[in-house]
Write a structure and sequence with these properties.
alpha/beta, Rossmann fold, six-stranded mixed β-sheet, four-stranded antiparallel β-sheet, 10 strands, ABC transporter ATP-binding protein, Oligopep_ABC_C
């Protein structure tokens, strides 16, 4: 389980400007097999909180723990294990994949780095298995392709394959489907749900796409100006929102749907 307890992140200017409170006293839990969504407008602090969950930036105050271990106080061995336990799938697959590396090399390097398999044949088999799991089948032809030879949906599936090859407990997905068109987005979401059923992986899903959240999330956290202003089961948030900001978000979505 990931547990966030009163975690804040303050960015301070080197030139003496006013500090920016990007995340303010956030409390959140996420565990294996659960689909947790963090929603809010741009600038609400969602992505900063995601980077904190991934251990990429430390909390200014409060704590983030994984199975009781503080992320900011891990030793080298614990941090390496954390990298396997909590993986990331980001918005831009083109920017997350090296255009000079084939799909097989991209995933294979992760397998070797974390000693998931040894020897060329074992690594090759592990890469094929991950690609099959994300629906890139038959997998063999995809191993030799470069990112620019794939569609946007296929590149996103490669990112998911790179994440799940380590058998993580939780994947932090930051706007992971926002750049995809509707049909491709639906396919990737079905894949993510299927991986929860097959592998037990959980998600922290950062997005502004409320229809997606309503369809796939178990629990929702609503962020505004760095603070979590409301949280609860998905049905409760959508059917009976309590905070004025949550109410305005849902009302805006309804107006947009009626216009479209």
């Amino acid at each position: 389980m990931i547990e966030v307890t009163n975690a804040s992140k303050v960015f301070r200017s080197r030139r003496g400007g006013a500090p920016v409170n990007a995340v303010v006293d956030a409390n959140l839990t996420a565990q294996r097999g659960e689909f947790v969504a963090i929603v809010g407008e741009s600038g609400s602090g969602k992505s900063t909180l995601a980077r904190m969950l991934l251990g990429l930036i430390p909390a200014t105050s409060g704590s983030i723990t994984i199975n009781g271990i503080n992320v900011d106080q891990m030793n080298a061995a614990q941090r390496k294990d954390y990298r396997r336990t909590v993986q990331a799938v980001l918005q831009d697959p083109s920017g997350s994949l090296n255009p000079r590396k084939t799909v097989g090399r991209t995933i294979g390097e992760i397998v070797r780095l974390h000693s998931i398999a040894r020897g060329r044949d074992e690594v090759h088999a592990k890469v094929l298995e991950a690609l099959e799991l994300v629906g890139l089948s038959p997998a063999e032809p995809f191993i030799h392709r470069f990112p620019q030879e794939l569609s946007g949906g296929q590149r996103q599936r490669v990112l998911i394959a790179r994440a799940i090859v380590l058998n993580p407990q939780i994947i932090v997905a930051d706007e992971a489907v926002s750049a995809l068109d509707a049909s491709v987005k639906a396919g990737v979401l079905r894949l993510m749900n299927g991986l929860t059923e097959r592998l037990g992986v959980g998600y922290v899903f950062i997005t502004h796409d409320l229809p997606v959240v309503k369809k796939v999330a178990d629990r929702v956290y609503v962020m505004k100006d760095g603070a979590i202003v409301e949280s609860g089961p998905t049905r409760q948030i959508f059917d009976d929102p309590q905070h004025p900001y949550t109410q305005s978000l849902l009302a805006s979505e309804l107006v947009l749907e009626s216009v479209l």
